[in-house]
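for the writeup, i need someone to sanity check this before i put it in the appendix. the sequnce is what the collaborator sent (i think, or maybe the updated version? ugh). structure was predicted straight from it, no edits. if anything looks off just tell me and ill rerun, i have time this weekend
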Amino acid sequence: KAGASGYINKDITVSELINSIRTVYKKGRYMNPEFAEQLAFNSLQEMKTSKPMLTSTELKFATMLNQGIDLKEIAEKTEISINAAILLRRKVFKKLNIDNYIQLVHYFKDQRIRVE
């Protein structure tokens, strides 16, 4: 993420150092195999546990959608334009990686988000 072309441990052999330099020169990237394995494992764990973070406004909006309130009524209640409500719905759906209201209901159920 920081833009490095490679990663090596401090305790590598001279031949591994030379190999890593040649690899960066030829292919543009080099990563110590043990580090690459750990990085891949951490990424998988992060993907499994990460949940999209909605702002309080987005959560309130998503909750109203989940309750079956139509966009026009949500726009009136929250004092925003219908166009702003449409954009907010699109943003919430994108953050939650969903495409429709049915998936939103399932998301609330799966995440055990209580609707009061």
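Residues 39 and 45 are 10 Å apart (CA to CA). Helices lie at 14-27, 33-49, 56-66, 71-78, 82-96, 101-110.
thx in advance!!
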